[in-house]
Specification:
Number of helices: 35
Helix content: 55-70%
Largest sheet: 5 strands, mixed
Distance between the termini: 77 Å
Strand content: 5-15%
Length: 889
């Protein structure tokens, strides 16, 4: 250890450089934890400063700060605490914000070490304000590490991860002090705890290597204890014991040198050793560390109380000191009582342990077997559900290849009646298969708790009459008397989830027709009862055996009775019906007698609105053939790149689009990227005008491809349409956030695909024309133009729901003539004012429909400023190729 005295420097004649050299040398010792050397260097400066005023008062404050840091690292907490508080007050008055920030961060670290987490947080918040206000970037890293450490202590894992990731991605850790780096890797290890043993140990070992040269025995004790605990979590007791031994060695060294401040860590080390020896089958050693750990815990509690009283004693009056001493004595008496009680509890626990150990050993093996069996059953059930869900996703692509060509063929006027009938059968069964995949996916969503009720105002009589009547032709063909009894007023409107209610109707009636022979009767009854809707289907079929009756609503249930033939089916239809009704807060029941028939009834609460005026949720418009697709692009100058790994679907898409565009097909995202950048002399824009990409692909999927395209200057302008079997809203929103221009789910309508592609290409053409007219305006918009465009966009968004929004209103608002406004918006956006308003309205409507903000299309139309709902539906269908109700689902 180096020792220095005041004779090395005469402060009365010292210049600033000599004092600065002493500070630099002291800081070097501080960084390697040689705190006594720091005090030896700097204490003479403080003593002399009391006799002779330094010419530079700032340097005097820096000396005091360095000494406070050394005392903090030496665990002279009271001395460091008082000095840091004085420094903060003085530097605040003198507006020396650099020293103020460093003092506040050191005080935050001290409070954290003392487990005064609220006070530590206050200092961190105060220092952050100063760092931001005066741009003190040199302290950002230390602030982030301390903040991450604070969040880790209070149990906020997400916030801790955020701050540690902030260090990893934005700041240079290598130039920071070793103790800062060590804290960073320790927190990284704590975050990865219980996940990846090797990675966690590597983080802790890196921290050990950083602080070992600093002789920080207390820090080594903590890190070895964390490594021991991590090995224990993964049942590697031998490695855990090795690290625990190292922690004990470091602890005793810290005690010998007076460095041990965190006695609670030493208590945890003893507790961990008890667990290790218990796992290794050494109960005597385990009991020893139980008693030792409890003794250390009591001692730590007393030390903490003594320290609290000591701090208050320094700052209080004589009267307060007397009162605090009395309380301290009372606390010591309480500690003694707790100690006696604790030893009594330990003694009783040991006795009980001896009594139950024999019984525990006998039951341990049985419990392990039962737990293993239960885990296997749960895993099998999860695997089964996951398999069905994955299979349903995979079915969407072949369904697309079935239903789209069949629909195309049905539009052919040259089909014979027999061919038309056969294609209709194929289409009907394909849609039934599509319905089955939807049911399986909904069942999976129910398991995960992600399925929600989406209620829409519905004319109940029309809804149930229409869907129940679809089984009339089936009843006629099977010779079954089919009675539809809807006892609801025609004007009554109710809030129901139309899709789930439709599936409820379909599944119950399909089940009834399946088990009712020719000459039987099926009755469908719908009524309102005391604020509830009751839907009941009864039949005169073969009925259900009483042994099978309790299981009919179980998933995948099939009867095992020997006299019953194998009937097929998935066993999920009735289970899904029951899940839906319970999702509606209702109840589903079944009554049946063998050879007499069955009655299934569903009853759930419903919100009723009786009114004669109703705007249906489903807005249907005639399908307008878009002739411009064939005429405008017949020259095949537009080039579309298809990215699809499924061979048949790729060929089908190429066949559909080849009538209108040049088409190139590649098998994955990596192949698409290589195709665009194969020739350095040829730009990607000359090879491709639009990209149609699948989402799930090998090598590089659709998300990865879209991110690369939208982040590269040469390709970010190319429109991207995502085509995928994943129909969940979160997947669609994720793609749109990445920058995907449009999104289609399988199975898809051929015409919808063509319309959406055409709209994207037309918008792209407008942008290119604008670049030709005024390249400079597009390439480099001035700050003044940017400010104007921001005000313009904000005003349009605010007035979006108003039917008074017009070009004249905008011209008056922005104090310019209508021709000038036209040129301004055309130059900055590529659109005329009317086109711009329409584009904003339709995109806002698309967002509202996709997020299901409103429960009817009419409300969405009104929200975006369309008074005529039919006009809104036509404009939306023309823009996006799909009706608003189709987007809402």
């Amino acid at each position: 250890m180096v020792a220095c005295t005041s004779e090395h420097i005469d402060l009365s004649s010292a210049n600033e450089k000599e004092v600065q050299d002493y500070l630099i040398k002291a800081e070097q010792f501080l960084n390697i934890n040689q705190n006594d050397s720091v005090l030896a260097y700097l204490s003479p400066l403080v003593i002399a400063a009391q006799k002779v005023e330094l010419q530079n008062a700032t340097q005097n404050l820096k000396v005091r700060l360095m000494i406070a840091k050394a005392n903090e690292q030496n665990n002279h907490n009271v001395t460091a605490l008082l000095e840091l508080k004085e420094l903060i007050e003085e530097t605040r008055k003198q507006k020396l914000w650099t020293i103020y920030t460093e003092s506040a961060l050191t005080l935050a670290r001290l409070y954290h070490k003392m487990q005064r987490f609220n006070l530590s947080k206050q200092q961190l918040e105060t220092s952050k304000v100063i760092i931001d206000r005066f741009e003190l970037d040199q302290y950002v890293l230390e602030w982030i590490i301390l903040n991450a450490h604070w969040h880790e202590e209070v149990g906020s894992a997400d916030s801790t991860t955020y701050y540690i990731d902030l260090v990893s991605h934005t700041l240079d850790l290598t130039n920071s002090r070793p103790n800062i780096q060590a804290e960073y890797y320790m927190i990284k290890g704590l975050l990865s705890s219980r996940q990846d043993l090797n990675q966690t140990i590597q983080y802790f070992q890196t921290a050990v290597d950083l602080i070992r040269p600093m002789n920080d025995n207390e820090g080594l004790m903590l890190l070895y204890h964390l490594m021991s605990r991590e090995y224990g979590i993964f049942n590697q007791d031998d490695q855990s014991l090795v690290c625990s031994d190292s922690a004990m060695v470091a602890a005793y060294r810290a005690i010998a040198k007076g460095q041990l401040n965190s006695s609670h860590v030493f208590v945890s080390v003893n507790s961990q050793r008890r667990t290790i020896y218990k796992n290794l089958g050494q109960p005597d050693s385990a009991l020893y560390y139980v008693e030792k750990g409890n003794g250390e815990r009591l001692r730590y509690t007393r030390d903490q109380e003594r320290f609290r009283f000591r701090e208050l004693d320094v700052q209080s009056t004589n009267q307060q000191q007397s009162l605090l001493l009395q309380e301290q004595e009372q606390q010591i008496k309480t500690d003694r009582a707790i100690q006696i009680l604790l030893f009594s509890v330990i003694f009783l626990a040991v006795v009980l342990l001896i009594l139950i150990v024999r019984n525990y050993q006998k039951q341990k093996q049985t419990n392990q077997q039962l737990a293993a069996q239960a885990q296997q059953l749960a895993q099998l059930d999860q695997m089964k559900s996951r398999f069905f869900a994955n299979a349903s996703h995979e079915l969407r692509t072949p369904l697309t290849l079935m239903l789209a060509p069949i629909k195309k063929l049905l539009q052919d006027d040259h089909l014979t009646p027999k061919q038309h009938q056969m294609l209709n059968i194929a289409a009907r069964n394909g849609k039934q298969l599509q319905q089955l995949t939807t049911e399986i996916l909904n069942l999976r969503k129910l398991e995960l708790g992600n399925l929600e009720v989406t209620a829409h105002p519905t004319l109940l009589y029309d809804f149930f009459s229409t869907h129940c009547a679809q089984f009339t032709s089936l009843a006629d063909s099977k010779g079954i008397e089919y009675i539809i009894d809807v006892q609801i007023d025609r004007k009554v409107i109710g809030q129901i989830d139309q899709e789930k209610c439709r599936q409820l109707i379909y599944n119950l009636l399909s089940n009834a027709f399946k088990f009712t022979p020719s000459g039987g009767q099926i009755r469908c009854h719908v009524a309102l009862q005391n604020g509830h809707l009751k839907f009941e289907v009864s039949d005169t079929g073969e009925g259900i055996h009483r042994d099978d009756l309790p299981h009919v609503f179980n998933r995948y249930f099939q009867t095992n009775r020997p006299e019953k033939p194998i009937e097929g089916g998935t066993g999920i239809g009735l289970a899904l019906c029951k899940e839906y009704v319970e999702l509606f807060d209702g109840k589903m029941e079944v009554k049946s007698a063998l050879n007499q028939g069955s009655t299934f009834s569903a009853k759930f609460p419903i919100e009723i609105k009786e009114t004669a005026v109703f705007v249906p949720n489903e807005i249907t418009t005639p399908l307008v053939k878009n002739t411009s697709i064939a005429t405008k692009k017949s020259n095949h100058q537009t080039h579309i790149l298809i990215v699809e790994d499924h061979p048949d679907l790729g060929k089908y898409l190429k066949m559909v689009l080849s009538d209108h565009y040049q088409v190139t097909l590649v098998e994955n995202g990596q192949a698409a990227w290589e195709y665009l950048f194969t020739n350095e002399n040829e730009s990607p824009a000359s090879k491709c005008d639009l990209i149609l990409s699948d989402l799930m692909m090998p090598v590089m999927d659709g998300y990865q491809l879209s991110e690369k395209l939208k982040s590269h200057n040469a390709t970010r302008h190319i429109p991207v349409v995502m085509l995928t079997a994943r129909a969940e809203l979160r997947d669609k929103l994720k793609a749109l956030r990445i920058g995907v221009d449009d999104y289609l789910t399988k199975p898809f309508e051929e015409e919808e695909l063509l319309v959406r592609i055409q709209n994207l290409l037309e918008r792209q053409t407008i942008k290119k024309e604008l670049q030709t007219e005024d390249k400079k305006a597009v390439a480099d918009i001035s700050q003044e133009d940017q400010d104007w465009l921001l005000r313009f966009e904000t005003y349009v968004q605010q007035q979006l729901s108003s039917d008074l929004l017009s070009v004249s209103l905008l011209a008056d608002e922005f104090a310019m003539s209508e021709p000038t406004l036209f040129r301004q918006t055309k130059r900055l956006t590529g659109l005329s004012p009317l086109q711009y308003i329409k584009e904003v309205r339709l995109n806002k409507a698309l967002h509202l429909l996709e997020t299901q903000t409103y429960n009817s299309v009419s409300k969405v139309a009104y929200e975006v400023g369309y008074a005529d709902h039919s006009a809104f539906a036509r404009a939306f269908k023309k823009r996006f190729g799909k009706s608003p109700s189709g987007v809402m689902g």
